[in-house]
Every structure is written in structure tokens, then in C-alpha cells.
Amino acid sequence: MAMNTPVRRPGSGLWRALRGSRKATAGAVILLLFAVMAAFPGLFTSVRDANALDAPRLGPSTGHLLGTTALGQDIWSQLIYGTRQSLVIALVAGFLATVLSVLVGVSAAYLGGLLDDLLSVLINVVLVIPAFPLIIILAKYAGRGSLTVMLTVLVVTGWSYGANQMRAQALSLRNRDFLEAARVRGERRSYIIVAEVLPTMTSLIVANFMGAALYSVLSAAGLQFLGLGDPNSASWGTMLYWAQNQQALQTGSPLWSVAPGLCVALLGASFALINHAFDEIGNPALRPVRGRRPAPAAAALSVASAAPTEDSPLLQVSGLRVAYQGARGPVEAVAGVDLTVRRGQFTAVVGESGCGKSTLLFAIAGLLSAPAAVTAGSVLFQGSNLVTMTEKQLNALRWRDYSVVMQSAMNALNPVRTIGAQFRDAMRAHGEFTTEQVRARSVEVLELVGIDPTHLRSYPHQLSGGMRQRAMIAMALLFTPDLVIMDEPTSALDVVAQRSLMVQIKELQQLLGFAVLFVTHDMSLVRHFSDQLLVMYAGQVAEAGPTRTVFDTPAHPYSRGLLEAFPSARGPRIELRGIPGSPPDLARPPHGCRFAPRCPVVEEQCREHEPELYPVGEVRARCLLQAPGRRTRPLPPVEATS
User: Fold this and answer.
1) pTM for the model
2) CATH assignment at residue 404
3) What DSSP letter does each residue of 116-158 carry, written as one string?
4) Which residue from 35, 38, 191, 542 could staple onto 537, CB 3.0 to 4.6 Å apart?
5) Last residue of a domain, which of 286, 311, 330?
6) Structural domain of 513
7) SS3 state at 616
8) Could you give the C-alpha distances from 104 to 30, 98, 107, 108, 170, in angstroms and in order?
9) What are the tens digits of pLDDT across the range 50-104?
10) Considering 480, 508, 536, which residue would you say is the last residue of a domain?
């Protein structure tokens, strides 16, 4: 059933968040009151000069609401006029410190490498220096009485803690699937940081600003209290300085000290309370939903005709090797894999976790990142070697000619941006499109995967798991690519949703004519959908050939073990045997056949000689028992499964 989404006007998110939280409302009222006092002091006092003199040490009265100081100044007027400087210090110093924290922390984490090391050292050095003594020293020697100097000192000493938090948060996001998907779509690094990373950190950035603003208010008040500010300026800290010097508490003028201290506390409390509202802005799932409108009528469905089949392979992988650099040396996760995918063909790659399936997929798509690297082999796509291409050249191909559907759709979709916005980013990364063109194509691909176009305005959390995965597939089809690479797209779905999604993928493939490279650990999932099957074990191809042949007459003991590990939907109930043991440590692979330690039909020759891929009818199998000229031990037939 289609789910309607609320209508949102620009700026309505902040207003709704403020109204929905009593704490945030209270904080906003306090801050607004201080802002009005700072901007229009004449509304609150008739005194034109905060330092105008009257009789000293008067008590509260209608003429002097809080009394007068030892010199005869009106305490209430000083409080009103002092609001402006205190608020300016809080907002300006807090804003500049937050900007510096974001620039240093996020850039260091996302860019990584030597820059991250250098900036991390800088952050840590500033963090270990005692803050307030450093503030006193800087303020003392930088000059006295200048608001600009004080702001500079507060920014210089107030950015490091926030930068450390930003770096930690950005590090946790750097390898998230939705950022990898944005990179695959060809979006610029600067755009990814601004449009993809920073919106997910809204709550932390705002919290950092509130903390920096509070830190600035307290630090500035402390500096002025110690006499390091301009003693003639109108501010709450200066009021505290003179109250202390004139012994206000001992001479019967407690309001001279209490009033500015209370204002500093109230301003800090307002920042903390407002932060509750920004939690909802940073996380759309927390936003209250009220107004709704019916979904618009569905647009007419139009489908491009399938490309004609060609004899030349669409994708040709030859001798591909991928290694991860580790402390004990390189670990080869993909060891000499050959793979051919033709136009319109559905090829599945199966195997246990850790056998190299996803590494193979990322190497083909050009998405490997350090410490992984292709050490040998080639990946020819439409005749061009993807391994030797630059990132700029790969970005020109990705999403237009081949696209990638990540494993977890909830992670691959940006949680704080609508589906339509992410579709728009993908399209505009590869060309100039009008708003109408983007909308029309987005509606078209959503309808292709059976999602109502109204969900272009939905956030990922408003969709079910199956709908999110379909939305990712729709995004992958924006340019009708020749090849769609899918990394376990059904792993987070139940068996019913898995079957439904697989049927739809197959129907779309037959309709549009694109090829599919499908990675999964569930061998039974692809039985009725794939044309070719590649069984991987310990970084190598254990068996490859037509799917039907591999299922009916597996030539490798590992393939047979995988087939026996899942139950039949129909027919007699049989005992599920599974495969004993676990895959080998690829840092020290076993001598000879890598499957020998777990093989039920192992022979001595298997532990001594490494097998090749031998032809066995329509398939190829990496098993010495299938080597030409050897006396083989045939594998028993597989029980019928559906």
C-alpha cells in the first residue's frame, strides 16, 4: 500500500521541531529575549548610557530596578547594554570555532593519508594544552581591551575538542555504503563532503556550536572577570570584574554580582535546550508528521527497448589478483580469477563469507581502496581495461555504462536526504538535466521497480527494506546501463521478499537487456535466475559453468557441499550435512588444494599439488579428481531440490 508523505515548506522543519519540544521552545524564547535586548536596549531601559552616574549603592527601586553600583551606575542598564557584547562573543566565536572544527576534523577523516596524520597531531597537541591558562597567556600578551583579540583567542583555543569529535564521526561515516554509492555515481569529493557527509552530522555540528558558544561566553566572562578585557566595556564579565573589585557581596550589593552571573547561566541553558530541536532536524525519523496529501497520479510508463545481443563479451576478467597489505605481508583475497559476462547474461558469483566475492566485485567496479589493490590481471569492459583507468575515467563510465547496487540499501541511501534528491544527484553528476527531466526519469524508474512516485519525497526510513532495495535498483537503472553489478542485494530481506525481488530483477533484465553480475552467499537463491554460475572458495574459482549443470551435476566437492547445505522446498526431507571446518587463512593458505582440509573425498595428491581449472563437460572445476588422464572418483548425484 502506498504511503503518503507530508508536505514540507522551506524552513518548516526548524519551526516544527521547536514547537514539538518544550525544552527547545524554552531555549528559543530565552535566546530570543537576549537577542531583542541586545538589538533594542531602549525597549528595556530609558538610560542612554550604561556608565551614567547616580547615587552609589542604592537598593532596588522603581527608578533603579536592581539598584546601583559603588560608583552609581544603574545595574539594570549595565545588564541590558552588556547583553550585546556577550551575545556577539557567543555567536561569533562559537560559529568560527565550529567552522574550523568542521574543516579540520571532517577533511582529516575523509581525505585520510598523510593529511589526516598531520591534522590529528595538531588536534591532539592543542587538546593536551590546558585551555584556560593558555587563554590567559594569549590574552595577556596579544593585547588588552580589544574585542577582536578576545574573539581570536577564544577561536584558537576552542576548536580542537570539536575537531576531534568531527573527525571521529567522519571516520565512522567514511566507509558507509551511501558514501561509496555517491562516489560510484561520479560525484565530486568536495560535493560528497558538503552534500553527503555534513548533512548526516547536523546534530553533532549544532551540538558543537552550542558547546563552543557556551565555552566562549564562560571563557570571555572569566577573562573579563580577571581584568584581561576592556574595563570600560559594557559586558556581563566586566560587571563581574568591578563587582568583585568593589566587594559587592560584602557591601550589600549582591545583585551586582548575581545578575550578570545568572544571565551567563541562562544564555548557556538556552543553547543546551535548543540543541534538542536540532536532533529532530538531523534525524528525519524523529520528526513529527502531521499534514498529508494524497499521492499524485502515476506517470505513463515508458521503457527503452533492449540493446541487441553481440558476440563479443561485455565484461572479460582475466587472471585478476587482489591483495590486501597487512602487517605480516600481502594477503591475496582474489587469486587469478577469470570471468566472462556477455550482453544480457545473468552471472552469479556464490560462496561462503570471506571467499573473495565482494572483493572481486569491487575490483571489477574499480571501487577498491587501501590497503587493497589489484596486483595482476585485467578487467575489460566494452573493450577498455578498467584496472588501468584513472578515477576520472571510471566516473565517466560508472552509472552510465555500468552501475552498482550495494549490499545494504539502508546504508547505501543517505538517511537525511529524500529519495528524489539522491536520484537528482546521480543524474546531474553525469550531465546537464532540467528539473523536469530529472523528475520524469525518476518517476519512470521508480515505476519500473513497482514503487509509487510519491516516494521521491520520502526518506529511506519511511520505506520498507524491500522498497529501499528496489529504490537502489531504480537508481542503478537511471541511465539504463549495459551491466548492473549487485552485491548481495537480498541479504537483509526475508525469503518471501527475496523471491519477489529476484523475480523483479530477472523481469527488468529481460525487459531492458542489461547484463547482471550477482554476488550472493545463498546458492539456492540464483538457481532459477542465473545463466552462468561462478563458485568461489578461498579467493579462487572452484567451479564455473552453466547454472543448471552445476546444480544437477556438481564437479567440485565444495559445490556439492554448498548444495547440500540448504533444504529442498519440495520432495523428501533429508539431513543437511553442511561443510565441516572453516575457510583457510589466506595469509597462509594450505599447500596443494585449498579445499583439501575440508574435502570429504580428499586424496594424498590433493595435499601435494595445486589443481588447475579442468574442463568437465560444460563446466570447469578446480579439482585434481577431475584432471584429464587421472582415475577419478565420481561424486554421487545431488538430491533433487527446488
Assistant:
1) 0.65
2) 3.40.50.300
3) HHHHHHHHHHHHHS-HHHHHHHHHHHH-SS-HHHHHHHHHHHH
4) 542
5) 286
6) 343-368+383-536
7) strand
8) 32, 10, 5, 6, 11
9) 777 777 778 788 777 888 887 778 888 888 888 888 888 888 988 998 998 888 8
10) 536
